[in-house]
Specification:
By secondary structure, this protein is an alpha+beta fold. The protein has helices at residues 14-19, 35-40, 76-80, 91-97, 102-107, 110-116, 122-129, 150-153, 228-231, 237-244, 250-269, and strands spanning 7-10, 26-29, 48-51, 61-64, 67-71, 133-137, 146-149, 154-156, 159-160, 167-174, 181-187, 197-204, 209-215, 222-223. The strands form 4 sheets. The protein has a 5-stranded antiparallel beta sheet. Strands 11-12-13-14 form a 4-stranded antiparallel beta sheet, with helices on both faces.
């Protein structure tokens, strides 16, 4: 099956991109590795596509004190290959290397993945666990950019806190402190497929950040409200998840509990982060 007819425009600036939208019937693209397959299946039928991939503002990577700002059009492959700096040492690099297939990673972008908001996508759970912040440009003239924490950015399956005219311009990823530990585990039926269950754990005592995120829930990731009993062995993964995600059916709950167990095993053997 092929997509229905659509117009295509390459944006020359952020203003140009937002002006090119046609009454909510257009879509922004960057790598087009998420929206494109949906269009081929005719699950999405935008009247026009506005390509943001070549905008210099979205291709920048800026190192700041305590965090790195990634332009939204940075590709998975650029993170995987170390072309851009990794504030986490190698955690983001390892996550990028396990996204889909190399052909997808060559074109797919970190910002495009977040804006598409597939509940099973890697960056959705990884950046939630890493305490990342999304930078969004509004459509109004002189409207300041908004900073949205990842846990508030994804609002549901394929749904975000952005309006259709907003543009995700960048992602801020904080640097962990010395001694931080990380684990990310996902279950897929085949290599390259979206996860059926996933879990990410960050333990960062220096910055008072401890997170256990559960992904591939069919909605936004869930953060365990109190991860300490689980980390201390006072609570089993099934007990913790039954409290945190009671909306999940028993078979899904079991898969997610396995994901958490594997991530806990990983973090016990993980190397401590060092600046």
């Amino acid at each position: 099956m092929k997509p229905v007819l659509f117009d295509y425009a390459v944006a020359q600036s952020l203003n140009d991109a937002q002006n090119a939208l046609q009454n909510g019937q257009s879509k922004f693209i960057s790598g087009n590795q998420s929206l494109g397959p949906m269009m081929n299946l005719r699950l999405a039928r935008p009247a026009a596509l506005v390509d943001l991939s070549q905008l210099p503002e979205l291709r920048k990577v800026e190192e700041h004190d305590g965090y790195i700002r990634f332009g939204a059009a940075i590709t998975h492959a650029e993170i995987e290959d170390g072309v851009v700096p990794d504030p986490t040492g190698h955690w983001m690099q390892a996550a990028a290397a396990n996204i889909a297939y190399r052909a997808v990673r060559n074109r797919g972008t970190i910002g495009g993945s977040l804006a598409h908001a597939d509940p099973a996508a890697d960056w959705v759970i990884v950046l939630t666990a890493l305490c990342a912040t999304v930078i969004v440009r509004g459509s109004e003239d002189n409207c300041p950019s908004r900073q949205i924490p990842m846990e508030d950015f994804i609002t549901g399956p394929y749904s975000t806190a952005m309006s259709p005219e907003d543009i995700l311009t960048a992602i801020d990823v904080p640097r962990p402190g010395n001694g931080a530990r990380w684990a990310y585990w996902k279950y897929s039926r085949q290599v390259g497929e979206f996860a059926k269950a996933s879990a990410a754990i960050l333990i960062d005592p220096a910055n008072n950040r401890t997170r256990i995120a559960i992904g591939a829930l069919g909605r936004q990731p869930a953060l365990l409200p109190n991860p300490q009993p689980l980390l201390a062995g006072e609570q089993s993964p099934m007990e913790a998840l039954a409290e945190a995600i009671p909306d999940q059916p028993a078979n899904a709950l079991h898969m997610h509990a396995v994901a958490v167990s594997r991530a806990l095993d990983q973090i016990k053997d993980s190397e401590e982060f060092s600046i």
